[in-house]
Amino acid sequence: MCGRFPPIVAPDVRPRSDIWNETEVHAFPFMRKEKGSAMTDGLWDKPVEVMVESSDHFRCVASSRDAVAFLMTSWPTKGGKSFSAARRACLAALDGKIADAQAKLVFVHAADEAGILKR
Q1: Residue 79, pLDDT score
Q2: pLDDT of amino acid 78
Q3: How many whole angstroms separate alpha carbon 96 and alpha carbon 84?
């Protein structure tokens, strides 16, 4: 079902170090960088399906880059701790600061909290 929509094109953005604070790392311990992790292509092992506008339309988010684009263009309500944590985690994964699997966990948590995660 993930092939129904064209891929999301994300702007080329990089995280600012001043917005990555220790409070969020402690609140979401899985956001800590794993030792030896390096910059990757950002692809996730399995895509995450999220609702778009209504429960009839879904979009596949298959990478940290897709997640950033979805967060910035299609997220139902911008703002809040989960939204901000997901955005920072995905940007950090693109920059190689944390593992892509960790960014995916934060994104899934935020999508679930926003009520747009397909179950």
Answers
A1: 82
A2: 82
A3: 18
